[in-house]
From TrEMBL:
<dbReference type="InterPro" id="IPR016053">
    <property type="entry name" value="Haem_Oase-like"/>
</dbReference>
<protein>
    <submittedName>
        <fullName>Biliverdin-producing heme oxygenase</fullName>
    </submittedName>
</protein>
<dbReference type="InterPro" id="IPR016084">
    <property type="entry name" value="Haem_Oase-like_multi-hlx"/>
</dbReference>
<dbReference type="Pfam" id="PF01126">
    <property type="entry name" value="Heme_oxygenase"/>
</dbReference>
Length: 198
């Protein structure tokens, strides 16, 4: 994997391909999260935040991976795990136990697909941040992890997309990235369903 920023991949950019192959997966995660009514009250939000905590904790080693930081410069700084922890501190909620049985890959190109899922979730977060205002939360208290980047949410995302589209991958790696994205959404879906109150 060599980073050649800005190089188009095939006929359609890699990002578009991943987006198309995960469209329905995203829709179902979106529906499941909204069904939790996370912004109806703080107890529901705390449950959602617990899922975010597990997801971002499990993603952290990918953000910190040396090889990935060499091909995606600045990756480590993109992790929102610390912001999730600060939100939990704000709300004085306990860190939930990670009971997920699904593994997050620690090597290979699949990790890039997982990173797409995690980074992309910062886009939808703009809508979630607005909704969080209903329960008195904002980017300085309780909903820090939903805030846009200081450089601008869109700009920060576009930089990642450029890096993603610019990676030189062989066919197997290309397929692995798509699999990683599908698995990343499946992981989150599994988190939501396994967190349903009895
Ligand atoms: C109720 C919860 C959610 C809502 C309402 C939501 C909504 C959205 C919206 C509106 C966008 C497009 C934003 C734009 O183009 O400016 C988006 C993008 C995205 N969201 Fe979500 N989202 C939710 C949850 C999630 C979760 C939990 C994940 C990951 C685990 C996720 C992953 C993504 C990804 C990867 C993208 C980027 C798609 C792309 O442009 O390629 N979303 N979301």
């Amino acid at each position: 994997m060599n980073a050649i920023v800005g190089q188009p991949v095939g006929d359609i950019p890699r990002l578009e391909e991943i987006r198309q192959s995960t469209r329905s997966a995203h829709q179902s995660v979106d529906n499941m999260v909204m069904a939790m009514a996370p912004f109806d009250n703080r107890a529901n939000y705390a449950r959602f935040l617990g899922l975010q905590y597990i997801f971002h904790a499990r993603m952290k080693p990918l953000y910190d991976a040396k090889d990935l930081n060499a091909t995606i410069p600045g990756l480590a700084k993109r992790s929102r795990f610390d912001a999730v922890c600060r939100d939990m501190d704000d709300l004085e909620t306990e860190h939930p136990k990670d009971r997920s049985r699904l593994a997050v890959p620690q090597v290979g190109a699949e990790r890039i697909g997982w990173l797409y899922v995690c980074e992309g979730s910062s886009l939808g977060a703009a809508f979630l941040l607005k909704a969080a205002a209903n329960i008195g939360l904002n980017d300085g208290f309780g909903a820090r992890h939903l805030a846009g980047h200081a450089d601008g949410r869109g700009k920060h995302w576009r930089e990642f997309v450029e890096q993603l589209n610019g990676l030189t991958l062989d066919d197997d790696e290309e397929a692995a990235v798509r699999k990683g994205a599908v698995d990343g959404f499946a992981f989150f879906r599994n988190l939501v369903s396994s967190s349903q109150p009895a």
